[in-house]
Amino acid sequence: MSNTPLPTFETIRLGIDGAVATITLNRPERLNAAPPQMFDEIRAALQQLPALGARALVFTGEGRAFCSGADLQNRAAADAAAASGGTRAWHSLTKHYAPTMLAISRLNIPVVCAVNGVAAGIGASLGLCGDFTLAAKSAYFLEAFVNIGLVPDGGATWMLPRLIGKARATQMMMLGERIPAEQAEAWGLIYKAVDDAELPAQAKALAERLANGPTLALGLIRQGIARTLEQTYEETLAMEAAHQHLAGDSADAKEGGLAFLERRKAAFKGQ
Asked: How far from 73 is each of 12, 86, 105, 126, 207, CA to CA, in Å?
């Protein structure tokens, strides 16, 4: 574990336990509604992960919600002052929310989202951005934008059709209805729905398993999955060969090969 001191934030909490970092959305009195500042602080926290020795990251929410969406109460007041809701929304997305979602997508360590309650709007995008999303059975996902005359953001229109197909993505975005955790699991929207009391432990166990894995290979896998959604088959074959070249030269690959030959469990170091 790194001795690097943990920075403090106003809207989130950053923690490190062994090689697992946790970012907790920390505005429980507002159901973790997300002002632009929250996403700026998430992005700042991500920059600390290498120094902390993090090999996996967990997102979760404080209290009874994961994230109820953008902070509409604060935005309404700001829009009234600015007299241009559309311009302000564009600025918030391009300068705050979108850069953070992009930074998460570019991480070279696995990401686990532990959705402990409602995940709505930008909160749904954040809750679904991980390599694994576990959700409490009482939780639900909601693309609420259409209900207030807006369009999905935070990458939702890219993410949802790829996760669950066009028909179900259209249902979520155009009807603006809740998708309970167990339905989300049945659709393939998330990895697993779990009993509420078991969510923290299951998310931690999964993150620890990933953190104990071959970090370079896992990072290349997550980047490869993202890229193959846009590439041809031929391009993907070339990418896999390049990634295998990098992974094959790692200390973890050498350890994995020796462990296989010696019929023992590999002790990966993330190198």
From this structure: 19, 16, 28, 20, 34
How many other β-carbons are positioned within 10 Å of the β-carbon of residue 264? Answer: 9
| 15's tokens | 């923690």
- Give helix 72-82 / helix 85-92 axis angle, nearest 10°: 120
Nearest to 59 by CA among 161, 133, 158, 149: 133
Q: Which two tokens stand for residue 72?
A: 């509409």
> How much of the chain, in percent, has pLDDT values that exceed 90?
71
Percent of the chain with pLDDT over 70: 94
Q: What is the spatial distance between Cα 224 and Cα 83, in angstroms, rounded to a whole number?
A: 43
- 47-66 core/surface letters (b: 16 or more CB in 10 A; e: else): ebbeebbbbbbbbbbbbebb
pTM of the predicted model over 0.70: yes
**Rg (the chain; Cα; Å):** 19
C-alpha span between 235 and 162 (Å, rounded): 19
Q: Which of 45, 61, 34 is nearest to 104 (CA)?
A: 45
- Cβ burial, residue 169 (10 Å; 0-12/13-18/19+): buried
Torsion region of 22: left, alpha or beta (phi above 0 gives left; psi -120 to 50 gives alpha): beta
Assigned fold of 12-211: 2-enoyl-CoA Hydratase; Chain A, domain 1 (3.90.226)
